[in-house]
Design brief:
Layout (H helix, E strand, L loop, with lengths): L3 E5 L3 H13 L4 E6 L3 H11 L3 E2 L10 E4 L3 H13 L3 E5 L6 H4 L7 H4 L2 E4 L6 H11 L8 E7 L8 H11 L4 H17 L5 E8 L10 E7 L5 E7 L9 E5 L4 E5 L5 E4 L4 E4 L5 H18 L9 H19 L2
Parallel strand pairs: 1-2, 1-4, 2-3, 4-5, 5-6, 7-10
Antiparallel strand pairs: 7-11, 8-9, 9-10, 11-12, 12-13, 13-14
Helix pairs in contact: 1-9, 6-8, 8-10
Bound molecules: nicotinamide-adenine-dinucleotide.
Nicotinamide-adenine-dinucleotide (NAD) binds next to helix 1 and helix 3.
Pfam family, one: GFO_IDH_MocA
Keywords: Oxidoreductase
Family: Belongs to the Gfo/Idh/MocA family.
Length: 325
């Protein structure tokens, strides 16, 4: 039987990535679209030909829900959907703080085992290949990692986008929102969460922002890996988004937009690009794993709630360190 899905939250990431992935898949059926915003609901319902609802509580007869909602809404909806016996694919971050995430304690083990967290880029074959290179010692070790995560430029011609980002900033610095992904990649690549957060900094580039829009920290990972991570939003221009991994034997540059890898071992330079584009391959792989969970092919979600909470815990520790400077 093809699982029936409700897509909940019809904003940027839902319409730009989840909906296209759902429409590409032959293994799921979109049975409901949910958003309190009538205009978004009607235009998505018209495009997809599925019924739409202002609230998830009105939806009946679906096996799974994809939650593409703001993080301050997502936590409660995870509990509501899992308690209703549904499988859940919930966007990161799973909450805006560990205190908010306490609401998830209401879930039983059985309900938790139905929740997959949208740490989408964990599914990228580029990260799997880089992890292999590190494990094979192609770079040597210990490693120095410089992560420059700059996203969401302030575009003066799109004030609605800037207003939405400023609203998101009320719920935490960029590290709270972007760190969920980045610290999940680093745990995956470097063998676990950071042992220590050495120092942090933050900077607001204009007055009136609820939180600083630039922030950074230095973290110690297993096996002596040192990570210097910076996160930035809402400046009129942005530095390149990229991650550099340097060891005694080699250097890898990860393009932040495409996840193309460039490995330089001092003798030769190897470039690896993956097809199709990063969003398509990651959202498709993520959805495949969710379908496998719903149909019983996969016994446990991947990434699961524990992964989502671990990434949130690191983001929160880092944000505290950054805010303390
Ligand atoms: N996985 C990724 O690569 C990725 C990329 C971008 C954003 N995100 C995450 O996805 C989430 C959504 O981001 P976005 O940029 O699409 O935000 P957005 O503001 O564009 O969209 C959120 C939508 O949710 C709707 N909504 C709010 N409350 C709701 C409720 N109770 N029920 C149903 N819908 C509700 C809003 O009306 C809006 O349409 C955020 O947590 C963000 O961090 C993930």
């Amino acid at each position: 039987m093809t699982p029936a899905i409700a897509l909940v939250g019809l904003g940027d990431i839902a319409l730009g990535a989840h909906l296209p992935a759902l429409l590409r898949s032959h293994d799921v059926r979109i049975a409901a679209l949910v958003d309190p915003d009538a205009e978004r609901r009607e235009s998505a319902a018209f495009a997809v030909g599925a019924p739409s609802y202002p609230d998830l509580s009105e939806v009946d007869g679906v096996d799974g829900v994809v939650l593409a909602t703001p993080p301050w809404v997502t936590t409660g909806l995870v509990v509501e959907a899992a308690k209703a016996g549904r499988f859940v694919l919930a966007e990161k971050p799973i909450a805006t703080s560990l205190a908010e995430a306490k609401a998830l304690d209401a879930l039983t083990e059985h309900e938790r085992a139905r929740v997959q967290v949208g740490l989408t880029y964990r599914h990228d074959p580029a990260l799997e290949l880089l992890r292999e290179w590190i494990a094979e010692g192609r770079l040597g070790g210990p490693l120095l990692v410089r992560a420059h995560i700059y996203d969401e430029r302030r575009d003066e011609s799109d004030p609605a986008h800037a207003a939405r980002l400023e609203e998101t900033l009320r719920h935490g610095m960029p590290v709270v929102h972007e760190g969920a992904h980045v610290f999940d990649w680093f745990s995956f690549l470097f063998g676990g969460p950071p042992s220590e957060i050495r120092d942090g900094w933050s900077l607001a580039t204009r007055q009136g922002l609820a939180e600083p829009n630039l922030c950074g920290a230095r973290l110690d990972y297993p096996q002596g890996t040192v990570v210097l991570a910076e996160f930035g939003w809402l400046t009129g221009a942005l530095p390149r988004c990229e991650i550099s991994v340097l060891g005694d034997r080699g250097h890898v540059l990860i393009d932040g937009g495409t996840f193309d890898l460039t490995l330089d071992d001092g003798r030769s330079v190897e470039k690896v690009a993956f097809e199709p584009d990063r969003a398509t391959r990651c959202f498709d792989r993520q959805l495949t794993r969710f379908v496998e969970l719903m149909t019983g092919v996969r016994r446990a979600p991947s990434p699961d709630l524990a992964d989502g909470l671990a990434a949130l815990a690191t983001s929160e520790r880092v944000a505290t360190e950054m805010g303390a400077r």
